[in-house]
Amino acid sequence: MIQKKICMIGSFGVGKTSLVARYVRSIFSDKYLTTLGVKIDKKALIVDDQEVNLMLWDLAGEDALTQIKPMQLRGSSGYILVADGTRASTLEAAIDLQSRVQAELGPVPFTCVVNKLDLRETWEIDEAALTRLADLGWTFLLTSARSGEGVQELFQTLAERMVREKKADA
């Protein structure tokens, strides 16, 4: 069995905890639960006929007073940058976070997620912002932790990239 650590990174209230809960337990709750420090979940899946155990580190959201600690990132095989489609500032924060996380981890696989697709009619993040992500060469997905849309694909795709890049390095 292969074990891979993935960090969920983003501003407060973007849906990191909800994405993990939807993926691991197939649940969604409207109750907002602030993550203090880190919450770790795990889920096994199959990649290229191999069992992969994902260790999902849901890190507390970042703001002006709270920043991700480098020790929380160490050992990560990949990470997910989460932005809230209804708050454009969270995408800018995710873009800023990516450069800091990459400086700490090096070029490990990551995916940017614009969450809350179920609220698309109230989004502040527009097509121009999504085009910017594509121009950066980023893999990005649109998800909804509430409906589950794109959630399975998010974790499966990142797990496949992590496993295949590790094989390519060997």
| End-to-end gap | 17 Å
Q: What portion of residues belong to β-strands?
A: 25-35%
Number of strands: 6
Helix content: 25-40%
CATH superfamily: P-loop containing nucleotide triphosphate hydrolases
The quaternary organization reads as single chain
- CATH overall fold name: Rossmann fold
Indicate the structural class.
alpha/beta
Looking at the structure, what is the overall shape? globular
The H-and-E topology, N to C, reads as EHEEHEHEHEH
Count of DSSP H/I helices: 5
Mean of pLDDT: 90
Count of the separate structural domains: 1
Organism: Granulicella sibirica
Keywords: GTP-binding, Nucleotide-binding
GO molecular function: GTP binding; GTPase activity
Pfam families: Ras (PF00071)
Nutshell version of this structure?
The chain is of the alpha/beta class. The chain has five helices and six strands, in the order E-H-E-E-H-E-H-E-H-E-H. GO terms for molecular function: GTP binding; GTPase activity.
What do you see in this structure?
Keywords: GTP-binding, Nucleotide-binding. 35% of the residues lie in helices and 26% in strands. With 170 residues, the chain is α/β, with parallel strands linked by helices. The chain has a single domain, classed as 3-Layer(aba) Sandwich (Rossmann fold), CATH 3.40.50.300. It has a six-stranded mixed beta sheet with strand order 2-3-1-4-5-6, sandwiched between helices. The chain is globular, with a radius of gyration of 15 Å. The mean pLDDT is 90.
